[in-house]
Amino acid sequence: MQRSASILLLVTCCSAAFGQFESNAITVTASNNTNLQPDQAIFSVTVQSGLNTGLDDVLAALQGSAITAANLSSVTTQQVTTYSGGISSTSLNLQWVFNLLAPLTSTKGTIASLTTLQQSIANLNNGLALFFSIIGTQVSQQLAQSQTCSFPALIASATTQAQTLASASGLTLGSITALSSSVSNVVSNPFASAPYCAITATFTVGRR
Q: Is 86 helix (H, G, I), strand (E, B) or coil?
């Protein structure tokens, strides 16, 4: 059985458990139900440019921000219609969309920084324009990776559940005769909460 040297989960986190009776035994499965709170804001930053603008030009305009080529999400064209003197004209622009992650605690500062950058780009009057918005939140990989499985807590939860089942059936709970564990690492998914851990324990039971 894999065990963890760090105990970060509380017994109260290990609420998912179910059991079944066997011959002179109760088998119980307990798992953690930890739901982490998002700690990152997801910003969508769009730079509008002419068709002749390249990525290097856009990144040069974003210099000084935390946005790099790795943040690029998509490049699309957008049809823009302008009116002058009652006459309309249509042109195509490029939309460079970047995703920027920032700690929730730094949201206000990030907004201020992007606003300053937006104004600076507008003052250059070089055909570029910047727009941004917050499109969601997520659990950072750093937070997810910091979570470990507390098997002592899971065993305690399984024991409590088995004791409840035994008492309800007029039985006395004995010792653990079999124990298995499983861990599913889900930190590659930024919207997942924490590694999923579970144990299955078999206890002996006897008549009172």
A: coil
Q: ∠125-65-141 over CA atoms, to 5°?
A: 145
- Residue ranges of the domains in the chain? 11-37+143-207, 40-138
CATH architecture of the domain with residue range 40-138 = 2-Layer Sandwich (3.30)
- As a whole number of angstroms, the distance between CA 151 and CA 32 comes to 10
Give buried/exposed letters for 101-122 (b at 16+ CB in 10 A, else e): bbeeeeeeebbeebeebbeebe
Q: Give the per-residue pLDDT at 207.
A: 82
Burial of 134 (0-12, 13-18, 19+ CB in 10 A): middle
* Distances from the Cα of 199 to the Cα of 28, 84, 116, 155, angstroms: 8, 71, 52, 7
The Cα–Cα gap between 24 and 142 comes to 45
For residue 65, what is the DSSP state? Answer: B
Nearest to 78, CA basis, from 96, 89, 97, 92: 92
Query: What is the rounded distance in angstroms from the CA atom of residue 176 to the CA atom of residue 26?
Result: 9
Amino acid 80: pLDDT? 79
- Give dist(CA 58, CA 95) in Å, integer: 10
- The conformation of residue 38, written as its DSSP 8-state character, comes to P
d(CA 175, CA 26) in angstroms, rounded, equals 10
Q: For the chain, how big is the Rg over CA atoms in Å?
A: 28
**Coil, strand or helix: which one is 121?**
helix
- For the whole prediction, is pTM greater than 0.85? no
